[in-house]
Every structure is written in C-alpha cells, then in structure tokens.
Design goal:
The structure holds two protein chains of two kinds.
Chain A lengths: L7 H5 L15 E7 L5 E7 L1 H5 L3 E6 L31 E2 L5 E7 L2 H9 L2 E6 L12 E3 L2 E2 L3 E7 L2 H7 L2 E9 L11 E7 L4 E5 L5 H12 L6 E4 L15 H13 L3 E4 L2 H7 L6 E9 L5 E13 L8 H9 L9 E9 L13 H19 L3 H6 L10 E7 L2 E5 L4 H12 L1 H13 L3 E10 L7 E8 L5 E5 L8 H13 L6 E4 L17 H28 L6 E4 L2 E4 L7 E2 H7 L14 E8 L7 E10 L6 E11 L6 H21 L29 E6 L22 H12 L8 E2 L3 H23 L8
Parallel strand pairs in A: 1-14, 10-31, 12-13, 16-17, 22-23, 29-30
Antiparallel strand pairs in A: 1-5, 2-4, 2-6, 3-5, 7-8, 9-17, 10-15, 11-12, 11-14, 15-16, 18-19, 20-28, 21-22, 21-27, 24-25, 25-26, 28-29
Chain B lengths: L3 E8 L2 E8 L4 H8 L18 E4 L2 E4 L12 E3 L12 H8 L9 H14 L5 H8 L10 H15 L3
Parallel strand pairs in B: 1-5
Antiparallel strand pairs in B: 1-2, 3-4, 3-5
Classes of the chains: A alpha+beta, B alpha+beta.
Chain lengths: 777, 160
C-alpha cells in the first residue's frame, strides 16, 4: 500500500542529521592534500610550513601512518589482488590525480585548507595510462596493469560460431560515470576513551561489514568500534565503502585525542569517490537463420582506474554473469580484462555490470534484427526464456551466487508493455515523422535485474509497554524509504498502525549483524527477516492475551494494536498491556521469556531476479545534436510491491539517473590523466528540464520463489536499461543503421553523425537525380 | 583576509550577531555560527542549489555569498517555513507527493519554490520547470518535485 513515508518530517523541516550536521566538542577538521599528478614517483612532500600555521595541530603523510595496511577488500583477503590495493596515503608513487598524499588537522576547516595550500609536493611525472584497451604496462616490478582476467562461460562457443548462419560483431563502449549523490561524503571519527570505543559517524551502506574490516585493519576488537549512520544524502553504491579518509579520521581521533571531522568538497568528490561503468566490449554473436542465438563471445576491457578498492573485481564479475539477460544463450564465453589506468578507482554504481551489459546485449539484439531483416521485437521473442522454464539455471556466477532466474514471464511483460504504449501506433507515427525529415526514433530494451543478495539477515522486534513497536535491523537507509517499508511489513503482521513502528538501522551498537543497503537487498532480505520476527511476536502476544482473556488463541487476532476476538465480541487487550504483562517482574508471564519481543532470521539460497522492459521515443535536433525524450515507459515486475509509490519513485529516479549516463554524464581525462570533469558545470547530471513524463507499469505477475513475501527489489530496475533503450531509440532515429557505438551519446557525437548522414543523403539524392547509384567518393 | 568583522543577520525573524572572517561563506555562517543546519552544501560552486535560502525574499545560493555581504539583511531558511506545528503548504506537498527520497536537496528546492511562488503565484508549467531546473536532485527524477510544487502553488494561494 502506498502509505506516506515515515522518513519525511525531519527532512522537510531542516532537522535531518547528515554527516555535515554531526559535530562534537573540541573537534578538529581534516583537509586532505591530493596529488595534482596522475602518475609519477613521489619525491618530496614538504609539510614544514603548513605545520607552522597557527591552528594546525598535525600534518600526516604516509610515514606517519606506516603501520596501516592498504585498504582491505570487503569480502576478505585476496592474495592475487592484494598488491593493487590503495594505500591510505600515497607512498613512493602517485597513481591518479586526486590521490590522498597528506592530511592536515586544524582547529578550523578554513585554516586546514590554508595549511594544505602550503604543502609543497614534488613528483617525477610518468606517462599516464588513460585507455584500458591499450596493451597492459608495468604497475610495479613484475606486476602489470592487468591484475586479472575475469572469465566465465559454458558450452562450445567455437562450434556455435562454426554452425552460425550469421555472425554479428560489435565494438561498444560505455563512458565513465558515477552515482554523484547530492551530499558529498563525510566522516567523523571520535574516540571515547572512557568506554574504549572508537566511533565512526557518517557511515552508510554497509556499516556492519565495514566494522569488521576496520576492526581488522586497526587491530581493534569489533566490540571496541562502532559505526553510526545518520541521514544519508544519496548512496547509489558509491557512498559507504571504506575510503582512505574514513580510516584517517579514526586513526587521528585515537592518536590526537580529539574528534576529527572531514567533509568532502564537490571537486574532491569527483576525483576521490568511486567512479564506475567504463568498459569497452568487443562482442560477437553466432545466430541461426531464424535469428536464434547459438552463442555469444565477448571480450571486454574494464577500466578500473588506479587501484582495486573494497569491491575487488565485483563489477566485472557481475558483467560476466548478467550479460546474457533474458535470452537463451546456448553457448557463452566472456573474458573481462580487468585493467588499471591512472584515473580515480572504480567500483559499484547503481546497477553495476548491468547498465553496461544491458546496453551491449540489447545493441547486439538490435544488430541481429537488422542483419536478418527481423523486427527488433521479433528477434527478442525468438530468444526469450519462457515462463515454463523457470526456475532457469544458468551456469554462471554473479555476486558469488549461481545465477538461477527464479521466476518470470518475460514475453508476457513485453506484450503488456507494447500494449501499454501502443507500440504499433507509435511506430507508424515515428515512421511518418521520419519520412517528413524529422530525426525521431523508438527504442526498446529488455533486461533481467538482480536483487536480494543474501545469504542471511536478521531483525529484532520489541513492543514497548505503551504499544509502540521498535524494529532493530542491520539494514541501512540511503533515502529509499527503508524505514517505511520495514514498518509496513511489521505493522501488517502485528496488526498495528505502521506509524507506531520505529525502525532502527545503520547502527552497529544496536544489533550484532547486518547486511546494510546494497545490491537491492534491503526490502527482500530485511523485510523478510522482520516478517519472521513479527510472526513470532504476534504468536507470543496472542498466546499471552489468550491466557489473560481466557480465550482460545485460535479465536483471537490483532487489530489496531489490540488483541481481540476474531468475531469482534468480548474483551480485548492492547499490545502495550500484553507487553506489560510480559515484563520481567510480572507474575502472569509464567515461564515465558520476558518481553513482547522476538528475533527473526531469513536465509535465502539465491538472489531473486526482477525483470523489465523499457521503451523510449526520442527526437534529435539535427542542428545541435541534442536528444529529447518524448515518451518513456518502464515496465518492471517486482513480484510484489509493498509500497507502489516508493517502487515508482525508485524506478523514475533511477531512470533519470540512467538518462544522465546515456546522454550527458562522463568523467573525461586528458592525455596526462588530468580529470576534466570535476564540477557540475563539466559533469552534467539531468535537471528538471531534461526529464520526460515517465509511464511506469509495475507488474506483480511473477512472485519471487526465493522468499515468503514473494518480493523482488526495485532499487536498480529504473536505471539498468536506460543506456540500452536510449541508444536503441537514437539509432532508430538515425535510420536504424547501427551508428551508435558508445554512451553517453553526447550532442557533439550525434551532431557529427547527422552531418555525415546529411552529406551522404544529399549525395545520394544528387546521384538519384542523375539516375546513378550513389557510390563511394 | 583573515580579519574578523561583526555582522548582524536576521534569520527566520531571529536576530544573530556574529563575528566572522570576511572570507567566510554565508552558508557556513548559517550552519556553523547560527546552528541552522537545515541549509545544505552540495557543490560550493553555485550549481546544485542545495544551499538555496531567501535573502530579502529572493532565492539565493548561500554558498556563493560571503556572510559579510548579508550584513543587516533578512534571511529565511527551511527552519522558518513552519508556523508552530503547522507545516508550510510546500512542505506538506513534498511529503504527500513523495517529492523527496534522501532529502538532501529538499531544503533548497523548498526555499526556491516558496521564494518564487510568493512573488509569482501564477507561473505556467513551463516557467515552473525552467525555474526548478536551477536546482539538482539525484534521487527523485524530479517528477514528484514538480507535482508537489504545482500542488503547493494552488494551496499557497488559498486563504490560510
């Protein structure tokens, strides 16, 4: 049910608690000094003058924290990748512009910046690697800039290509994007010596996993370090990983004996927080005469940037596992060349590995249709996995999980989407307009998302004696409406108003375990765990009430926070009173454990796979190369929508974010590895003017087979196929010739394609006038 | 550069006398010296609009001004929208229409929309979208922000 969000009141009244709003008495302010060079030998960091500035308490370089290891991988040690981890502060080498070299601690943030400006850095600059497609070069010693190749596959690909009636080959690239949340990162370290507890405020996404990593890196007991998530101004996969700054504020808080606050500025964010997406795919498909895929063979080049951060090779791995999408691919081989360049390190960004491969695979399907003279819809129909084949096991791995498509009627959703947008009508309309000289096109993309990464999550519910309910989760909120959804699920089972449910998240001091908010898992995992706990609480409440009311438990239910008879007759008791009767000192509770409380755990064997269809109609201004989206449909099956308003919000918001990556956003670098997109004037994210009205079709046809609530996640379904659908539509507008080979499709690129087409077109029309074929120059 | 000056600001009707460096931005003074942290800092180069406040009734990027430039002037921030327990129609509309997710850009959008609609209550849809495109949101895709502002525009005209 689309109930109002519990989160909103503090946020619309200016009472939020974002990282920048967290302050402690006597805190110091940290400023990070970053490398102005992309690649080089670090010769000198002269901090003498900075240290003299009044108000400066300390200046650290790598030598001051020589005892700290580079930043660990979230999923634990990995010997092969370990040499490529990022040091907390650079030593000997700098490998990207923006790499932390030193940290200044001062009593005032302005003074900290002044001091940072006084630090003199000398670097012997080396050639920068800016293209992951180039031959690997030396990283250090015998190590090259290709730490690993991610390979997956099955079947006999060579045979498939031997048997093929048609082979389609494409070379496709995705630009470098990132989540770019409106709130930059922030971290506040505080050491409470009285309790010997080190605290990190401004945490997000995966506080519990980060506590484990930080405890390991800092050599502390996990009981002596706690993470606190306040409000989070957008996550998108970027925020909440462990970065150098998180570690420095903690160590500084310990060693300097004062709280240390660090807030990132926007320019820093653009070169310090994780980048994502950049890949080049050289992909081939073997197809039979009817347009059925026999095999796919893909070599891709993943531009990881300068170091391997907390995610390891996760994005490239997901790309490998998800690439086949909703289609039968009888034989498959993929090699992901995981390569380092002298750019900001990369990791996950909302729909990692899928935004890229959905673009690649759907372009491939369009190309197959073109080559065989089929419609783009027909070629998809001939290859879709059918509902009777579910669950569909695919011998691939994504996020460490075997890919088992749990449920879905892909063709059913395609038909619904086509009917909803009146595709045939749109198509004839577009053809008519194109005939009249307009550059207008229709695009279609189909995709399978993934959500609900397990394996296990837990929640604890406690009903207070006033009837208020507290749910303690290890989940995290990144603004998606987590509190509301969890409250709704608990309220439904407990028979209370969801507004009386308080949801705790993002605090390691309240619950021992937690998976946080990533991989579209919060609703699937945490809501199911909360539902398990709620059922236990309900049972306990009903049994206690049955004793007090002298009724049979089966004759009772809970409504509006009261245990009542199902027939509505007779006495009732409020949940608060039941909780009171269950207090430790109560004589009526008998041998029941005290408290109207329970803990619930939910474990799943596999992820669940929502799926979607996106359809876009666009036009291109031939004078400027600008693309305008005229119509947009997102059809997405989430199994079951707990709060359709929030699902729609996720899908539309995701779509607009994806539109940025399809048309505008790109982190560009010059040949020396200097970042060219470090402001909002250079890295263009969509505004209200670029956004079309979006039609959203939320389908609930295929409940997840993986969890009792039947839900699949919605967090990444909006963004996942936007690059794909916009590229398809723009290509259609240009006559369906396969002219789009990379996203973002910027006005400059499009203008030059159109200029070429128009020169060619006028040549053809001159040739036609002369009764001659239009030949090459 | 580091000389300190005494300035007077009136924020949401309350008088603040603060001594600040001339180089200190208005948004830092609002947040750190006056303790009103509802105004957010998103880019510090005047593009995102998260720091939008009303300066003598006009929407203004408080990251692009020095506090000394606001000396003697009257400011309104998100904390001043509410009247006691009663939310401003714009706040209500953002809640009702799911016009926010993470909420970080929200104060800026609220102040922008309120400031503009107070002066020009009869904006066309086109003008409204043009004005709202001066602030950035990364979560909602704007559709619900536009809906909320349209709805509030009607309610702001209704007699209280």
């Amino acid at each position: 049910m689309s109930v109002a969000r519990l989160e909103d009141l503090p946020l619309v009244t200016g009472r939020g608690n974002f990282a920048g709003d967290v302050s402690f008495p006597h805190q110091l302010h940290m400023r990070v000094v970053r490398s102005p060079y992309a690649h080089g030998h670090l010769k000198v960091i002269d901090v003498a003058e900075a240290r003299q500035l009044p108000g400066v308490i300390a200046v650290w370089t790598a030598d001051d924290i020589a005892d700290l290891s580079p930043i660990d991988f979230r999923e634990g040690p990995n010997e092969k990748l370990a040499p490529f981890r990022q040091p907390v502060l650079a030593k000997d080498y700098v490998r990207y512009a923006g790499e932390p070299l030193a940290a200044v601690f001062a009593t005032d943030p302005y003074v900290a910046e002044d001091a940072a400006d006084l630090i003199n850095i000398e670097v012997d600059e080396l050639d920068a690697v800016t293209d992951a497609f180039a031959q690997p070069s030396e990283f250090e010693g015998a190590l090259t800039t290709e730490p690993t190749i991610c390979r997956q596959g099955y079947g006999d690909v060579a045979l498939a290509f031997k048997d093929a009636a048609v082979i389609v080959e494409l070379d496709l690239s995705v630009g470098r994007h990132s989540g770019v949340p409106l709130e930059t990162r922030g971290a506040i370290g505080r050491y409470d010596a009285a309790r010997d507890v080190l605290e990190l405020h401004g945490a997000a996404k995966v506080p519990h996993k980060n506590r484990e990593s930080l405890a390991r890196m800092l050599g502390r007991s996990p009981a002596g370090i706690h993470l606190f998530e306040g409000h989070v101004g957008g996550g998108f996969g970027v925020r909440g990983e462990i970065y150098p700054e998180d570690i420095i504020v903690l160590v500084a808080a310990l060693r300097l004996g004062r709280p240390v606050k660090w807030l990132e500025d926007r320019r820093e964010h653009m070169m310090a927080a994780n980048h994502s997406r950049q890949q080049r795919h050289r992909i081939r498909a073997a197809v039979d005469a009817k347009g059925c895929l026999l095999g796919i063979d893909d070599d891709f080049f993943h531009d990881q940037g300068a170091y391997i951060r907390t995610h390891g090779t996760r994005v490239a791995d997901i790309a490998c596992g998800i690439l086949p999408g909703p289609y039968h691919v009888p034989n498959f081989r993929v090699s992901g060349h995981f390569r380092l360049t002298n750019k900001t390190p990369a990791a996950t960004y909302r729909s990692p590995g899928r935004y890229e491969t959905n673009f690649v695979r759907e372009q491939l399907m369009d190309a197959i249709a073109r080559k065989l003279g089929l419609s783009r819809i027909e070629v998809r129909r001939r290859n879709l996995i059918g509902p009777h084949e579910m669950p569909f096991e695919r011998p691939l791995i994504a996020l460490g999980d075997e890919v088992v498509l749990d449920s879905g009627d892909y063709e059913g959703l395609l038909d619904k989407a086509l009917a909803r947008c009146e595709w045939d009508k749109l198509e004839s309309d577009v053809l008519r307009r194109r005939g009249a000289g307009e550059y207008v096109g229709l695009g279609l993309a189909m995709y399978v998302e993934k959500s609900g990464l397990g394996p296990t999550d837990g929640a604890r519910i406690n009903v207070h004696t006033n009837g208020d309910v507290e749910v303690i989760t290890g989940g995290a909120s990144v603004g998606q409406g987590f509190e509301t959804v969890i409250a709704q699920v608990c309220a439904e089972t407990l028979g209370v108003d969801y507004r009386r449910v308080r949801v705790v998240h993002g605090r390691t001091d309240r619950i021992e375990y937690g998976l946080g908010a990533h991989a579209t898992r919060a609703t699937v995992m945490t809501a199911n765990a909360a539902a398990v706990a709620a059922v236990k609480v309900r049972t306990k409440a009903v049994h206690m009430a049955a004793q007090l009311l002298q009724q049979d438990p089966s004759s009772l239910t809970i409504a509006d926070g009261n245990v009542v008879r199902t027939d509505g007759v007779g006495a009732s008791i409020s949940l608060g009173d039941v909780a009171h009767q269950l207090r430790p000192t109560s004589s009526t509770r008998g041998d029941r454990d005290p408290g109207l409380a329970a803990e619930g755990w939910f474990t799943t064997a596999h992820m669940t796979y929502p799926y979607g269809v996106q359809i876009a109609q666009i036009n291109v201004d031939p004078g400027t190369g600008a693309v305008q989206v005229e119509k947009m449909l997102i059809a997405f099956d989430v199994g079951r929508a707990i709060n359709p308003m929030l699902v729609r919000g996720q899908l539309v918001g995701g779509f607009v974010q994806g539109l940025g990556g399809a048309l505008f956003e790109e982190f560009q670098y010059d040949d020396r590895g200097q970042p060219l997109s470090v402001t909002f004037a250079d890295y263009l994210i969509p505004t209200a003017s670029e956004v079309p009205e979006v039609d959203v079709l939320i389908a609930e046809d295929a409940r997840s087979a993986c969890n009792p609530l039947g839900i699949k996640g919605a967090g990444e379904g909006g963004v996942a196929a936007v690059g794909a659908v916009i590229a398809s539509a723009v290509d259609d507008a240009l006559g369906g010739k396969g002219l789009i080979s990379r996203i973002p499709i910027t006005p400059q690129v499009l203008k030059s394609i159109i200029d070429d087409l128009e020169v060619q077109g006028s040549r053809e029309s001159v040739a036609a006038d002369n009764g001659l074929p239009a030949g090459p120059d | 550069m580091n000389a300190r000056r005494e300035i007077n600001l009136t924020i949401n009707g309350t008088h603040y006398a603060v001594t600040v460096e001339a180089r200190r931005t208005l948004v830092d003074v609002i947040r750190d010296d006056c303790g009103l942290t509802g105004t957010h800092i998103g880019c510090e180069h005047g593009v995102c609009g998260a720091c939008t406040i009303l300066l003598d009734g006009e929407p203004m990027r408080s990251c692009l001004m020095f506090a000394v430039q606001a000396h003697g002037r009257s400011l309104r921030t998100v904390e001043g929208l509410q009247r006691g327990e009663r939310l401003h129609p714009m706040q209500e509309a953002f809640m009702r229409h799911h016009g926010l997710q993470c909420g970080f850009c929200t104060p800026g959008f609220l102040m922008l929309a309120v400031g503009v609609l107070e002066k020009r209550p009869d904006l066309t849809d086109e003008e409204l979208i043009e004005i709202l495109s001066s602030n950035l949101c990364r979560c909602t895709g704007y559709e619900n922000i536009i809906k909320a502002v349209r709805a509030a525009a009607v309610n702001m005209k209704a007699p209280a």
